[in-house]
Amino acid sequence: MDFKSSDTVTGPRAEDHLPQTAQAAVKIVIVGGFGVGKTTMVGSVSEIRPLTTEETMTQAGVGVDDNYGSDSKTATTVAMDFGRISITEQLVLYLFGTPGQERFWFLWNGLFEGALGAVVLIDTRRLEVSFDVIGRLEERGVPFVVAVNDFPDAPRYPIEDLRSALDLPEEIPIMKCDARRRASSRDVLMTLMRFLHSIAMASASV
């Protein structure tokens, strides 16, 4: 195959390179049902150009995928989203967003491998979808926090009511967020890191 000068491969952008000061990297998964904002969160908080595997939704998903509350979506993640954020000069988080449609949940097993923790994004319009998501994390023993994404038309409930509905113990953090906003998404990740640190400290004292 003949290549033209314009076809020269230049490699990753300078801003995509891992900071030289980085000493530790942590894998985090962002999970949730279809259309809860996982791709949006990864994209809003990532310091590099995020990798997405979105494909156009077709008639094949009609009657199979539950897209209530996301009727305007025209694309869906079919494998994963990937991004990166530096929490400090030494600590980097690798973010993996999982596909939300149940027919793609078999991919979660590989994405969970090596993950230190998870963010569960929920949509209060479809709270029941979160039960299976949380159950999968509990089965695998992956520590997680819950972030309630702020959709304009979604009902709003007190945090303690949501905790009761999701049957979550007091120690698991639940917070409200706007996945479109970098600062809000970063706050969620920082809450997860503090939660993971508290678990590590508790284990060390035993």
UniProtKB/TrEMBL annotation:
Keyword Ribosomal protein among record annotations: no
GO MF annotations in UniProt: ATP binding; GTP binding; hydrolase activity
Key word ATP-binding present: yes
Membrane-crossing residue ranges in chain numbering: none
Keywords: ATP-binding, GTP-binding, Hydrolase, Nucleotide-binding
Residues in coiled coil: none
Family matches, as InterPro entries: Gliding_Motility_GTPase, Gpn, P-loop_NTPase
A Pfam short name: ATP_bind_1
PANTHER family noted in UniProt: ATP/GTP-BINDING PROTEIN-RELATED, GLIDING MOTILITY PROTEIN MGLA
Family membership noted in the UniProt record: Belongs to the GPN-loop GTPase family.
Protein name according to UniProt: ATP-binding protein
